[in-house]
Amino acid sequence: MTKTKQYTATEYRESPTILDGRKLVPPYQTKVVEFIELKNKEQRERAIKRAGYNTFLLESEDVYIDLLTDSGVSAMSDMQWAGMMRGDERYAGSKSFKRLAKAQRDVFGYNYMVPTHQGRGAEHIAAQITIDKAKGGFIPNNGYFTTSRFHQEHAGAVSIDVGVDEAKDTQSEYLWKGNIDTYKLLQVIEEKGAENIPFVRIEACLNMFGGQPFSLSNLYVVSFLCRENKIFLLLDATRLSDNANFIKFNEPEYADWTQAEIIREICSLTDCCTMSSKKDHYVNIGGFFAMNDKTLFAKAKDIVVVYEGMPTYGGMAGYSMEALAVGIRESAREDIVSHYLAQSKFLGDELTKRGIPIVLPVGAHGVFLDAERFIPHVPHEQFPAQVLAAELYIEGGVRGMERGIVSGQHGKDPYTGLELVRLTLPRRVLGLEHLIYVVEVIEKLYKRRESIHGLKMTFEPPFLRFFQARFKRM
Length: 474
Ligand code: P71
Description:
Layout: H1 9-14, E1 18-19, E2 22-23, H2 41-50, E3 65-66, H3 78-84, H4 95-107, E4 112-116, H5 119-130, E5 138-141, H6 146-154, E6 158-161, H7 182-192, E7 199-203, H8 216-228, E8 232-236, H9 240-250, H10 259-268, E9 272-276, E10 287-291, H11 294-307, H12 318-331, H13 334-353, E11 366-370, H14 371-374, H15 384-396, E12 398-399, E13 401-403, H16 405-408, E14 420-424, H17 432-447, E15 455-459, E16 470-473
Parallel strand pairs: 3-12, 5-6, 7-8, 8-9
Antiparallel strand pairs: 1-2, 4-10, 9-10, 11-14, 13-14, 15-16
Helix pairs in contact: 2-15, 3-12, 4-12, 5-6, 5-11, 9-10, 13-17, 15-17
The structure holds ligand P71.
């Protein structure tokens, strides 16, 4: 594995292009460009109205700077594109799968894997084979993710949040908001009984709370508790390389470890992982379910053939597996990951300097505007994060994603979660100039924040409603 140059503390401190110890200068140059265009304000007004004030329903040609997600939108490297030419598309026994399986073993270290079309495909299989529908059960999570919770509950279990309280306070600067509160976890184990817990799930760079990492010391305790109680520990390894990078830079005990070593250590403390490779493996599509247990692997193979495809391609083409195999190895490289984490930090710092309320500390994959503080006059029932995302689009053609009551509300429960607009940075795609433009747009919007009013929902789909819900202005 490539060892990257280690900078001394002084070298870091003295360079203006280094932020929080990470280099802002990209470790790449651009070989292909995609042109983008800013539509005028009237066109933007019309476009968002047509989209029912839901940024998921905008046409991509109407979007100038697309910060909807970091999923499937990274720029691939030349080596990934080159890999695609080697794709072995034969139905069974593909060489591309062997290269993917080897990359998985080298970087993450699990014994077995089944590829899936993306993360939720892996979540589906994991939930189906570990949860007994008749018996149900409880799944402690460091925080929920929409698709993960859906699959746990669809399979018959109840998801329980055992994350730390700091994660729910956007202004707490606690570095490890992705940690599991081990006291809460123990309480759930005692109350529900270990035999009623199909697995504990810990997500890397906890998405819904701002892309917040867990610490390795927390994982040691969680892993110990799971092993003592004979409960499977499942890692949602989406953005794992980002989490490992945070550990290297912020958890002093591991400062001398390479990012690759930290990734391996995290995986070795868990029993299996679900992965959406569309994020930090820089591919447009792909994911997998990996595990150490032979019996679990056998069950996964039984299910994958029904819902995805042969166990040697799952939901992927040979060429996708090749791009992924290369992307997995790139994700272990500290220079590559450090660069885009520095971009998130840059965007967050510039907004903070201007008094704009965001989730602190800045997490992995972008910056989250705190809509409750940005527009405190708009109540939950009028969808503050939804309207803020719509107004941001109108202001400057910047597309963010609602992460509030529309995506977070669960059944009839009163909503107690955060109201956030996620500005997600596609990896290796944008330059600092784009980010400066985004800062200017948000600053203008902040100045006219009192002119922003709430929305009314006019269409609500039955599942994962945020994807297709429609709204109108109050
Ligand atoms: C993101 C996504 C993609 C997404 C999913 C649902 C609503 C909106 C956007 C996907 C994740 C994720 C974590 C932690 C599993 C998945 C599912 N994130 N775990 O953030 O962040 O993976 O999309 O490949 O199926 O935009 P999948």
